[in-house]
Amino acid sequence: MSDELPYPPPPTEPPSPDPGPQGNQPAPPPSPAPAAPAPAPAQTAPEPSPPAYPSAPPPPAYSAPPPAYAAPAAYSPAPGYAASAYGYPPPARAASSRNLWVVITAVVVVAVLLVGVVAYVGAGYAFASSRISDATGAINGTSAHRSYVNTTFDLLDQQVGSFAAMSDAKVSKSTAGQVVTESQSITAIVGGDDHAMAAARSHLRDQQWLTALSSGRLADEAGRIDHGRKATDAVKSAAGGYVLLGQFFQSFFQAMIDWNTMIADARNNDFVGTSSQDALLKADAISAQQLAANAPGLPSQYHDFLVILQMYAADIAKELNARTAADASAADKQAVADVTAMSALDFGGTSDTIKSYYQHYRDDFNAEMDKATT
Fold this sequence. Notes:
Radius of gyration: 64 Å
Number of helices: 9
Structural class: mainly alpha
Low-confidence stretches: 1-7, 19-27, 32-45, 50-54
Strand content: under 5%
Mean pLDDT: 83
Shape: rod-shaped
């Protein structure tokens, strides 16, 4: 019986591991089988050999290398992201969340700003509109009195125009009092309009930081108010002049009443009454002359008349107090000359002179109101 085993013994080392697709090289040939062990020395009485067990077959030899596998494509990171050290894309969840919050924040900020701008523009426009409405109301209030102002101007012209005739001193003095009352009334009414417009104009400058976008509208309204106030200033100037004029005529016609009363007393041979009225005549003539200096638009004829009237009162006093007939006669002649001088004064054109003087106030009032209401 042969000493060689029927099968080669199993290898002493495990087979080499499969290189896998990374090797991509031909596998080395299998290692040669190990040499059979030396035969045992012959024995005189050989023992029976144990039953032979088949050993594991050797691993099959690869006749050809395994198919090559393509290497995985290199990862290209998205723009703005760095490649991972291990060749894999980095996690994008945190960056995406951060970008989303940035976008949301930006949208919220823009929305808040937009709402703020809309609110600013709306509030500014509404505030400016309310101030413009108040100013327009003040102008309209003045315009509502326009007819009254023009009617009063007409009335004053008629009343002052009646003074030139000097037909009835008492009636003329009463008319002069009406001139004063009407002038004061129109001053109060127009003055209230002017105060309302002044207040409305001052409020046009309120909250200028809020009404910046409406500055043009506010400026236009302020210009209209300025025209309206010029109109009321013209009326107040005219009315103020008419008040002084009326006060002058009240004093002037009071002197005329004193003169008429003195003549009536003289005709009745009332020496005491005549002397008393002559003193009043002189005092009222002086007072009227003082008022004449401050009466706007008063014709010079009235001043000249009063100067002569004072001389006349003085000559009458001389006549009344004369101790001799000659002195009384001389004083009487002088008094007659004074009357002649006063009669020579022409008052025919004084009414037109006064009307012409005050006409420009009326024209200015209407012109400025036209500008204020357009």
